[in-house]
Amino acid sequence: MQINKRPNFISSLIFASRWLQLPLYLGLILAQGVYVFHFWVELVHLVEAAFGNQNALQAIYAASGQHADTVPTHLTETTIMLVVLGLIDVVMISNLLIMVIVGGYETFVSRMNLEGHPDQPEWLDHVNASVLKVKLGTAIIGISSIHLLKTFINAENYSEKVLIAQTVIHIAFLLSAMAIAAADRILHPASGHSDEHH
């Protein structure tokens, strides 16, 4: 015999409080829009500098973290590489925002009912708090790698202390992500096999 227990007012209120997260996700969507705008501003500057616009060249030279007494009169390979890495960095942070917005909403607020939708992300099929943590950790390592690569390319403008600090921080991110993934595998040893069958 099953007893139908209806949630009381306090339980319903606590469960409904998850919707307080909705403004946070909407705010992240606005932040995503800011990143899109920043991406196009940097891209336009790069294209204009490639065609000889000196104002655009000065803007991307300063934005890429290069310091010199005189700004070059044309794009250099190092400057192009630093700007492109900056654009990749924006894209990877944007991907991180999407994972947090979509995965977080799906996990902690409400189902999106995207089953059968042709544009449904593959990773959303089996998203949960544990999977989301591992994916976010992996994304942060990718972003940290881009920052570290930009620093090493432009190493002459950084002190040895900064180079060592960024390397140590990147290693800390890497070890943290490995620890999260290992803990997830220990706590959910069969999850990987079950996902393969679905």
Brief descriptors of the model:
198 residues; 7 helices; disordered C terminus; mainly alpha; single chain
- Strand content is under 5%
Label the overall shape: elongated
**Count of runs of 4 or more consecutive helical residues:** 7
Give the count of structural domains.
1
Tell me the distance between the termini. 33 Å
Q: SS-based structural class?
A: mainly alpha
Compute the average pLDDT.
81
What is the alpha-carbon Rg in Å?
23 Å
Total DSSP E strands:
0
Instruction: Give the SSE order as H and E letters.
Output: HHHHHHH
> Main β-sheet, in a few words?
none
Low-confidence runs (pLDDT<50, min 5 residues)? 192-198
Helical percentage: over 70%
Explained architecture:
This protein is mainly alpha-helical and 198 residues long. The chain is built from 7 helices and no strands. The radius of gyration is 23 Å and the shape is elongated.
SSE layout:
Layout: H1 9-16, H2 22-50, H3 54-63, H4 77-109, H5 129-153, H6 160-187, H7 191-197
Helix pairs in contact: 2-3, 2-4, 4-5, 5-6
Task: Give a quick precis of the structure.
The chain is 71% helix and 0% strand.
